What does this fold into?
Amino acid sequence: MAIDKVTELAAAIDKIRSGDTVLLGGFNICGCPTNLLYALAERTDIRDLTLVSEDFGSSGLSFTQGPEKLFLNGQLRKIILSFLGNHKSAELAIAEGRLEAEFVPQGTLVERLRCAGAGLGGFYTRTGVGTEVEAGKETKVIGGVKYLLELPLRGNVALVKAHRADRYGNAVFRYTAANLNPCMAMAADLVILEAEELAEPGEIRPDEVQLPGVFVDHIVVTREVQF
Amino acid sequence: MDKRHFIAKNVAALFRDGDVVNLGIGIPTLASLYIPAGLTVFFHAENGCVGTDRTFTKPWNPESTRESVRQWLLEHNEYSGTGREVHRDLCNAGNESITLLPGAACFDSCTSFAIAKGGRLSATVLGALQVDREGNLANWKIPGKKLNGMGGAMDMVTGAKTVIVAMEHCTKRGEPKIVERCTLPLTALGCVNRIVTELCVMECRSGELLVTALAPGVEREDVISRTAAELRFADKLTQMSV
It folds into this structure.
């Protein structure tokens, strides 16, 4: 692994290829790497992406923000989400088949990512039994209870955000901003971490690290607030 | 007291000391305002914490501009480490700003859903589009009309020990939401234990809906006429608290 992972924003985004599956950390704006996301939205030549995210950004605002920017730019082929909310144009695109959509229960989504990150072949869960989510899935009765087989979900690139990271990529989050960031980072081949603050190795206590640097490839340091 | 707060107050009356409860978006979140004095209830927000306090505010609204939201984010970045302050990195599952009580814990999503799916929730409270006599729940999609996504609801109702539906008894158009058989896409099979509306409290058990309490001034006939499922009434009907 590279020793010093600090990278310029443009150079990091340049690693993303058309056709990639992009894993996006954050729960709405909280913990969302907006600088990385909006820099990707500037690169309209990167297209045909599959976006994996908890949500699609805030609903009911008078301006566009969050993952919806990528959609309105025509950069998305498919979304894998647990919550869409009130995004009328995306809803219409899904209904008309212009945007492929897969809805995954949030607990199943994070566990599929964790599975991919941990090199596991899948897991059985009760979530979704007897609903549309069950369609086409293998089922198994364990201890008298019916479970669904869910498969790992892997990405080419993950865009994640932490409050502070050292040059090796060891990262810490504040309050509820960790959310899906650790499991997204674990599940991608290439991980780009947006950090508000950069630390030198040793400045973050080893037992304080929430995302070990071994999962991180590039760090983009920015205190900018994009919205 | 308005209808939504009345429902929330009667939901809160169901909690016991030491319960860990997940609150969904809307009426369920209001239940945290009505915890009876002397009771300690730990609220779980699936985006990553246990121990939310009772304040929750929407940091922005439809009138917000890009610049005003940006300003809000810049101004709420003083970090004390206690969670007592409104902070841009601290929110609930409805993206409302929250604060934390002493003894709260924050964690990532995998841990959060382990709490839910591993059976650590005493209860989950959530809204519904439809509930039926078998306790089936539909709350995430209206085909051809509304595609919200299920968020964490399917996981919460599968893992929690008790599932409480808190909702208005009928839709805005006056159609019953408590029905013989759900027609909308399901969130989970047979998961609902209780229903609290502005008219009554019901228990769902073994394919039967048992009304246990009525709102003040509400008669049995009022509930029957606004419900599209067979009902049974408890021998000793109590009154919901105002």
